[in-house]
Amino acid sequence: MEFVTYEAEGQIGLITICRPKALNALNSAVLGELDEVLDAVDLEEIRALILTGSGEKSFVAGADIAEMSSLTKAEGEAFGKKGNDVFRKLEKFPIPVIAAVNGFALGGGCEIAMSCDIRICSENAMFGQPEVGLGITPGFGGTQRLARLIGAGMAKEMIYAARNISAEEAYRIGLVNKVYPQEELMPAARKLATSIARNAPIAVRNSKKAIDEGLQTDIDQAIVIEEKLFGDCFETADQKEGMSAFLERRKEKNFINK
Q1: What's the rounded Cα separation, in Å, for the pair 45 and 10?
Q2: For a tag site, which of 108, 145, 153, 228 has the least CB within 10 Å?
């Protein structure tokens, strides 16, 4: 891998986009490597993922404008599909993904962060969808996920005006969960990932599925989705262990992902 690194730290996986000379901008090669990395994650062992960018200035500055500048209509649509396919895979990934946003998250950077389950950021982070200033629309899900996360009115203002927002405003409008000093961001991401990883993996995965699938339908159908996934947890070794520990007043639990 030239632009994407992956490390397993116990039950936590760390994906880092490493293209510092281009502020970690996304080109076809980066998207391809990210796709390969996601396929390689050992879901038997890894219980939570962290996604970040290299350095302290930029998470992902956007899609690569140099690559996009000469695309035809058909090539532009194909590039959008490539990004959307990878981001959708990230969004639907069976285990939780935490975006640790360390600086610029513009265009494709904001879009990839929104494809993660949880977003935390450093104080110097900046979010935005500046595409209309380049003569294009957001193409990796920005028009869809931003409106779903912060509401249509605020999303339209950001996109139409190509307005970037600070970490503080991103927190205020609910785009990120928390803001940290730069040096505390990755320790906080690891702490959150560890908190997730110590819980029953099947239950965590089913909770993610219930939330994500339920949000795409009406409440009556969503409740049925939840009931099925709730029931699916029973008769697992982890359900028996979790409830036994509670009844026996044990703090230590041995969840084995089965």
Answers
A1: 8
A2: 153
